[in-house]
Each structure stands twice: as structure tokens, then as C-alpha cells.
Write a sequence for this structure.
């Protein structure tokens, strides 16, 4: 939009240019042509900048309102379009999160983390039971409890090869 | 305790196949950059709308964009988990070593003899292969399951970015207008514009008669008046120019993010083939685009 602002002198001449810009604004809003809308906003902005306040204050107000109208239309369109896609996006997020969870579980399995953790826990339990057994021997001498501890240690001992033989879960 | 009973478990069941895990670190890093670009765009758009006087719409849009940031967070975690699968596959012997250490600790607690070192070496070597195969399978399964969602997500985000680009472009003039409306800035702009207009008219007159003393005097007076407006007008003109520059940078960031998303989704679509062919995905273009987005962010994509 090439407008020779210096050639405009009278109120009628400024009003005629504004009229032309309003037509362009209306067209661009209806057509959804973003480049045309931006060009029209720029032309209206230049109109406000160049037109003398002395007699164009009312025209400037119309130009300002038209700039705002174009912006509000853009805002409504963007908000509605973006919001209309949110449900679909939420569904995709759910899928990606589920796959991520499975992948994280696969990582643990590949790193043999579960088996290693079970064995480390079993080791700790056996050490704790050995300490307990020692304490019992030296203090109360409870033979029944002594036997129960031995039985538990044996069970854990038998459990570990079974843990080792467990095939990795489907990864 | 029969140590031999432990060994078959340690070796696990071998299911060898010829798959090689791709290097996914560049892909995961690029995904993190995309996340940063979306966060930056969110701040930029909300700031712009607020400056244009659309506070409630900025808030509404912020709520919608929070879901976009959550989407990118989800894909960052997803990409990281893929990279971790690949890493776990490549460090199989280390995992077998950890398990052997745990077993030796267990045997030590029972006062039983530890695992023979040749068993451990064999387990480490074999599990090195097994882990890679397991990782390749996990990787393929994850990529295959996630791809429709990844492609759908990219499509939604690209469309969103298209809307944000249009919105930013149509926000520039309203933001500039809001600045002009502040503190009666219109008055100084109008005064300066009329002085400049008068100067142009005098310059035209002078070009026809270069020695017209009256015109020369008037031109000097106008120039003096223009000089007197500098203190108020020029900072304002600079602010208007800064708003334009900032908006253009934001638009470039949105465009680059859109391109990066497309490239990112394309690479994801090819990951299955990458594993089958044993080659790493070609992330060259994507990396170059995310470098551009990072540069735009560093230059002050949002409010700086």
C-alpha cells in the first residue's frame, strides 16, 4: 500500500484514504489473508502517525479501532483453533507417556537392576539375621528362634537361584 | 550352596539377532531444544498479548500453551528414555558385572565360595550381546508404538505454531499503538511528523530555487524545532523500532520451531529403519535448525 502522505491536505482527502483502508481491512478480515491484514494494520498505523491531529483526531480514532478489530479477529481465530486441537494433543501425550513408562521399565530390566536389587536386599537381610543370631546366642540362647533364623536364611539362599533364573520381562 | 545353579540365570537366555542401536543423543538433545523453544514462544506470545491490552486472552492462551509445553516435556522424557535404552544396551557387560558383584556379596554373606572369575568374564561378555539385542527390541517396540502419537503431536504443534505466527504478526501494530496511547505520546509524534512534513515541502521548494533566502531561513527554523523534539521523540521512535525487531525475532523463532518440529517428526518416523539398518538417524538438518532457534532465544526471543 503505497500512499503519498505528503499529498494529503484536506480533511476530505484524509477521510478518503481512511475509507479506502477500512475497505481493505474489511476484505482482509473476511478473506483471512494474514499478509493483507498486516499490511492494512501498518497502513492504518502510518495513517495515525502522519495525519495532523488538528483535524484528524476522529479519523485517527476510527483507524485505531480498526487496527484493534483486526487484532481481535486474529486473537479469536488463534484461540479457537488452538483450543480445538487440545483434546487430540492430550490423547497423544497420554500415549507417549505410556510408551515412556514402558521404555523406562525396559531400561531397568536391561540393566538387570531388579535382579541386582533383590540380591543386594537378600544379602543385607542375611547379614542382619547373622547379627541377630549372634546376639541371641550370647544373651538368651533361644534355640527355637535360632532354628527359625537358619530356616529363613536357607529359604533366601534357595530363592536367589530362582530369581536369577527368571526370564526378563517382555521388553 | 551350588554356585553352578546361579550361572545359568546369570547368563540368561540368549536370543541373538543382528541389530545395532543408533546413537540417539543428538536426537534427544534436539528434543530438549525444541522444548526450550516452545517455552520461549509461550512467554513471548503472552507478553505480546498483555502489551497489546489483551490480558484475559493472554491468560486463556497461556492455559492452552501449558498443554503444549507438557507435550514437549513428554517427548523430552520419551526421547531420553530411548537414549537410555540404547545406552543400557551398550553397557550390558557393566550390568552383568554389577549383578556378579551383588552375587559375590550374597555368597560372601553366606560364607560360600565366590563366583569363579572365568564365569563372571563369560557372563559379562555374553550379556553384553544379550543386552544389546534386548535393547534393540525394546527400542523398536517403543518407536513403533509411539510413532502415530508423535506424528499426530507434531502435526498439532505445527498447526498451533502457524496460528501463533499469524497472531504475532497481527500483534505488532496494536502493541505499538498501545505505546503511542501511553502518556500522550501521540502529541509529540504528531508534532514531529508535521515538522518533518514541512521540512520535506521546504526542501522541494529549495530544490527549485537554491538561493531563496526566506526558504533557507524557514528550513533552518524547522530543523531547529526538529532538534528540540529529539529528547522526547527519539526514545519513543527507538522503542517502536525495538517492538518491531522483537516481534520479528519472535516470528522467526516460531518459524524455526515449526521447521524443527517437522524435521524431528520425520527423523522419528525413520528411527525404525535406522535400527534395522544399524545406522544412526541423520540429525544434521535438525541440529542446524535447533542451533538457529537457540540463537534466536539467546538474542532475546521473548521480552528482552
Amino acid at each position: 500500500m503505497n500512499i503519498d502522505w505528503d499529498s494529503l491536505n484536506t480533511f476530505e482527502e484524509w477521510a478518503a484514504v481512511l475509507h479506502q483502508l477500512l475497505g481493505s481491512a474489511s476484505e482482509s478480515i473476511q478473506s483471512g489473508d494474514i499478509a493483507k491484514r498486516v499490511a492494512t494494520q501498518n497502513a492504518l498505523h502510518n495513517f495515525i502517525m502522519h495525519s495532523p491531529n488538528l483535524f484528524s483526531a476522529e479519523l485517527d480514532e476510527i483507524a485505531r479501532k480498526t487496527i484493534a478489530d483486526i487484532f481481535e479477529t486474529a486473537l479469536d481465530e488463534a484461540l479457537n483453533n488452538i483450543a480445538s486441537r487440545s483434546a487430540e494433543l492430550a490423547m497423544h501425550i497420554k500415549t507417549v507417556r505410556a510408551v515412556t513408562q514402558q521404555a523406562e521399565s525396559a531400561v531397568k530390566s536391561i540393566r538387570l537392576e531388579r535382579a541386582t536389587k533383590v540380591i543386594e536386599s537378600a544379602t543385607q537381610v542375611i547379614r542382619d539375621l547373622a547379627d541377630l543370631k549372634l546376639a541371641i546366642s550370647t544373651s538368651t540362647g533361644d534355640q527355637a528362634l535360632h532354628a527359625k533364623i537358619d530356616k529363613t536364611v536357607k529359604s533366601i539362599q534357595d530363592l536367589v537361584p530362582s530369581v536369577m533364573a527368571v526370564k526378563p520381562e517382555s521388553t | 550352596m551350588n554356585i553352578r545353579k546361579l550361572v545359568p540365570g546369570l547368563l540368561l537366555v540368549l536370543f541373538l539377532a543382528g541389530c545395532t542401536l543408533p546413537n540417539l543423543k543428538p536426537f534427544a538433545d534436539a528434543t530438549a531444544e525444541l522444548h526450550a523453544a516452545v517455552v520461549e514462544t509461550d512467554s513471548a506470545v503472552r507478553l505480546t498479548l498483555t502489551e497489546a491490552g489483551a490480558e484475559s486472552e493472554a491468560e486463556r492462551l497461556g492455559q492452552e500453551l501449558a498443554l503444549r509445553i507438557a507435550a514437549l516435556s513428554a517427548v523430552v522424557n520419551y526421547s531420553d528414555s530411548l537414549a537410555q535404552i540404547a545406552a543400557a544396551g551398550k553397557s550390558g557387560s557393566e550390568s552383568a558385572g554389577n549383578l556378579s558383584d551383588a552375587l559375590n556379596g550374597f555368597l560372601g554373606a553366606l560364607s560360600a565360595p565366590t563366583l569363579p572369575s572365568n564365569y563372571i568374564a563369560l557372563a559379562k561378555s555374553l550379556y553384553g550381546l544379550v543386552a544389546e539385542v534386548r535393547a534393540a527390541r525394546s527400542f523398536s517396540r517403543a518407536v513403533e508404538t509411539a510413532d502415530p502419537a508423535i506424528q499426530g503431536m507434531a502435526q498439532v504443534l505445527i498447526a498451533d505454531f502457524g496460528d501463533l505466527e499469524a497472531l504475532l504478526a497481527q500483534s505488532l501494530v496494536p502493541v505499538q499503538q498501545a505505546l503511542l496511547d501511553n502518556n500522550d505520546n501521540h502529541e509529540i509524534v504528531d508534532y514531529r511528523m508535521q515538522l518533518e512534513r514541512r521540512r520535506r515541502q521546504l526542501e522541494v521548494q529549495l530544490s527549485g530555487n537554491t538561493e531563496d533566502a526566506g526558504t533557507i531561513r524557514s528550513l533552518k527554523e524547522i530543523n531547529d524545532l526538529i532538534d528540540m523534539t529529539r529528547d522526547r521523540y527519539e526514545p519513543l521512535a527507538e522503542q517502536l523500532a525495538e517492538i518491531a525487531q522483537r516481534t520479528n525475532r519472535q516470528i522467526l523463532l516460531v518459524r524455526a520451531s515449526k521447521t524443527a518440529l517437522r524435521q524431528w517428526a520425520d527423523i522419528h518416523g525413520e528411527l525404525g529403519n535406522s535400527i534395522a539398518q544399524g545406522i544412526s538417524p541423520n540429525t544434521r538438518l535438525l541440529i542446524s535448525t535447533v542451533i538457529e532457534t537457540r540463537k534466536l532465544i539467546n538474542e532475546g526471543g521473548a521480552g528482552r
